[in-house]
Design goal:
By secondary structure, the chain is α+β, with helices and mostly antiparallel strands. Strands 4-1-7-6 form a four-stranded mixed β-sheet, sandwiched between helices.
Amino acid sequence: MSRRPPALIDTVAWVRIEDGRILCARPRGKDVFYIPGGKREGAESDLATLLREIEEELTVALDPASVAHVGTYEAPLGPGAPDAAVVRMACYTADYRGELTPSSEIAEVAWFCYADRAAVPPVDQLLFDDLRAAGSLA
């Protein structure tokens, strides 16, 4: 019997750290916080996905010239997810213009420190670990 490879959920995320805390968002209808971002549409590049998703979710414009890759992480989707689904999250920092305001698809935003690590999905936890090791996350 052959096994199918795990389903891959390909995402891009914006890493915004201020005062040792990272910006997280909770979508409407969900009880989990995520690093803001989302799935690419079609053959969209990481940059195009990042700019679109952050404007849709947080109503700010990222500065494309300031975008810098932080890392790419992969982890199982988590409890209650389809069997063997894996999330790949390409993470970027960037400056922004505007006021961080949750859009209609976001229920709330919060600034998390490392102690809040358990409140985010497994792939986000990997990012939290690296940020903590680098001294960026309180």
